[in-house]
Each structure stands twice: as structure tokens, then as C-alpha cells.
Write a structure and sequence with these properties.
The protein is mainly α and about 150 residues long. About 75% of the residues lie in helices and about 0% in strands.
């Protein structure tokens, strides 16, 4: 069996006319190209695009259906892979930027919390000193306000 015969088997075409229809060609155009040998190339491309194993189409050896991704991806696939790589690179940049911003905010929050803690400690110390002074009736602001009569 020849390559065109295996293409017909794979595509489920019982005749040249059926294959011509499947390839969107007139029967006469199909026959003319078949005589010149050029129809086989387009028929193989069609079958491969639908999942046929190209080696099987040409030799009859191996599985009828392709089972693996070709070793060399098409230019469309390579272009898509490059677009995806560029998009991933941009996403990583954004992620790094977001991580830096998060880290900066975390550091600022910690500094702010430490400042609040220091202020609270100072307020607590002043409050404790005022309470102690008031207990001893040696409260200087009160003496000043009352003219020292306490």
C-alpha cells in the first residue's frame, strides 16, 4: 500500500473522490495533482494535522496515530512558547516588585509599632511618676497651681 492509500485509511475515505472532497478539491484537480505527485504532500499534511503518525503514512511502520509531540515544534508553537516565556518573565518581575513592596511595608509597620511602643512606655513612665508624686503630696505642678500651699 502506498502513502496515499494509508492517508485514505486514516481519514476514512474509501475513494480518491472522497479524499478530494475531504481536501476541498475538485475530483479533476485532485487527479491532476495526483498524476504530478503533489497531492500526496497536501494529503499527508491534512492527515498529520488530524493526528496521523507521519512515519506510518510513509512507511506503514509504527502506530497509525501520532503518540508523541514532534521533536521540533512548529514555528507557531515556538512563537507561542516565546510569548509564554515573556509573559512569565513579566509576571516574575511583578511578583518580585510586589514582594519588595510587601517587605518594605512590613519593615515600615515594624518601625511604626516600635515607635508606638516607645511612646507608650514613655507615657507609662510619666503616668507612674505622676501617680507616685501625687501619693507623696510633692506634686510640683499642683504646688505651682496652688501657690505652693499644696
Amino acid at each position: 500500500m502506498d502513502t496515499l492509500g494509508r492517508v485514505k485509511i486514516f481519514l476514512g475515505c474509501k475513494s480518491d473522490a472522497a479524499l478530494a472532497r475531504r481536501m476541498n478539491m475538485s475530483r479533476q484537480n485532485f487527479l491532476n495533482q495526483k498524476k504530478s505527485g503533489s497531492v500526496e504532500i497536501d494529503a499527508v499534511k491534512l492527515a498529520v494535522s488530524e493526528g496521523a503518525n507521519e512515519d506510518w503514512l510513509h512507511t506503514g511502520q509504527g502506530p497509525m496515530k501520532a503518540t508523541a509531540i514532534p521533536a521540533e515544534p512548529s514555528w507557531e508553537l515556538r512563537a507561542l512558547i516565546e510569548e509564554m516565556r515573556a509573559a512569565i518573565k513579566e509576571l516574575r518581575k511583578d511578583l518580585d516588585k510586589d514582594e519588595k513592596e510587601r517587605s518594605d511595608l512590613w519593615d515600615a509597620s515594624n518601625r511604626h509599632r516600635a515607635a508606638i511602643d516607645r511612646q507608650q512606655a514613655a507615657i507609662d513612665n510619666i503616668t507612674a511618676a505622676l501617680i507616685q508624686a501625687e501619693k507623696q503630696k510633692d506634686f510640683l505642678p499642683l504646688k505651682i497651681l496652688t501657690g505652693g500651699t499644696g
